[in-house]
Amino acid sequence: MNLIDLLTGNTGNEVATQAENKFGISKNQIIALLAVSAPLVISYLKNKSQDSKEAEALNNALDKDHDGSILNDASQLEARQGEGNSILSHIFGNDKANVENQLSQNTGISMDKIGPILAMLAPVIMGYIGKEKQQSNVGAGGIGDLLGGILGNASNQAQQQQSNPLNDILGSVLGGGNSQSSGNPLNDILGSFLGGGQQQQGQQNQQNGGLGGLLGSIFGGK
Question: At what angle do helices 81-92 and 96-107 cross, to 10 degrees?
Answer without folding.
Answer: 110
